[in-house]
Amino acid sequence: MNKRDVIFSLLDPGSRPACIPAGFFLHFDPTCRSGRAAVEKHLEFFRYTGMDFVKIQYERKFPPIQEIKTPDDWAKMPEYGLDFYAEPLGVVEGLVKAAKKEAMIILTLYSPFMFAAQTTSYDVITRHIMEEPEKVKTGMRTITNSVMRFVKECIKLGLDGFYMSTQGGEASRFSDPDSFETCIRPYDFEVMEEINRTCPFSILHVCDYQLPYSSIERYADYPGQVVNASLELTGGKITPRDAASLFNRPFMGGLDRLGILAKGSTDEVKAAAEAVLKDAPDRFILGADCTVPADTNWDNLKTAIDTAHNWHG
User: What is the rounded end-to-end Cα distance, in angstroms, of the chain?
Assistant: First the structure.
């Protein structure tokens, strides 16, 4: 059973995975973020750690636009063509050719809201949504058009799916919950439903990198074959079993990206992974709650992955 088979068996309720899959990811040195260097570094990391899929780091941020200062200014948001995405598309093409036969290939994809924050800032886009949501939706529409163009091209190149990252539903983001429902959720769904319709393996990532969540229940009906999220909520901690039950699909995670995984010894990592695996749901991918720090020891990640692969309960 190769690594593609491992993931397919995880997604099939009628089969039993041969092992517990695992995967972690980090940003590589700036010299290895595009072109052949990026392809080779991703392959080196994938093969060294033994993880069960290739996850491509997305490094092409939307450029800041200083002219967007008021909600009216979102009408100035430009739509980006495939030339804008040339570098990440090149990395996708290279890794699909190099590794698709042995493993699923997925790519980080930020949500339209997150790209809007790159264009201005989190403070600006949040404030504008609260002030004039209908005007901001003009910009969100344009951003979503750009993202959809990119997604469809990645799929044409043979990408298996995406690590679909979303924000906006954090505990202190909006005082009015309608802000999320009006300006974030519809655009998330447009992109994610296209992915879900076409791709065999995508991970929904509820990202707490910017702010924490009081609950992740509002994402329970979001698309994605697997869900990845932090278990640390402002109202208390949940377990991987809780998350798998809430989303009714396999959960990926269990380890804190900033904890023992990043700072501990390999023995400590092994013990931490075992503690997670003892109470993991039946269909589970051992991972972190988000991207681990770039200076994390690869041996720590390999140790956690080996521990999952060799786990017999």
Answer: 20
